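Today's session is about reading a structure prediction critically. Students often jump straight to the picture, but the first step is always the sequence itself: look for stretches that repeat, for charged clusters, for runs of hydrophobic residues. Only then move on to the predicted structure, which in these notes is written as discrete structure tokens rather than atom positions. Here is the chain we will use throughout the hour.
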Amino acid sequence: MSLLDDLDATNAMHLTPFIRLRATRSANPYNPRATANDWTKPEELAFSGALAASSSTRTPDGLDTATTTRAVLTVFDPSTDIRVGDRIRADPGDGTLWQVTGVPARDLNPFTGWQPTLEIQLEEVKGT
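Below is the predicted structure for this chain, in token form.
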């Protein structure tokens, strides 16, 4: 049992349940040699983590105003299968759908090989 398992067992960590959504691949009707993302029935993966919002930017473009919010999601299992392009939502959540915008970081201690967490860069855009 690791230190993180001990902390979780005593409820010292307050983790939120999340669902990772990944588009399935389907044939592209316009190009038979290519495939396209199909978000109608995405592949789902349940996991837990801690979300920390980092910044928001509001961009008026004359017709509409978009607000982009960035966040970092820390997952305490570095083997969790999450990649760029996936979508993340809290389970149950408020309907917020985050897009994974950076390659998830699996930090590694070079002396012991310990991998404590998986850090995921997220972004949400509203009002476009």
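Discussion point for the tutorial: The chain has a mean pLDDT of 85.
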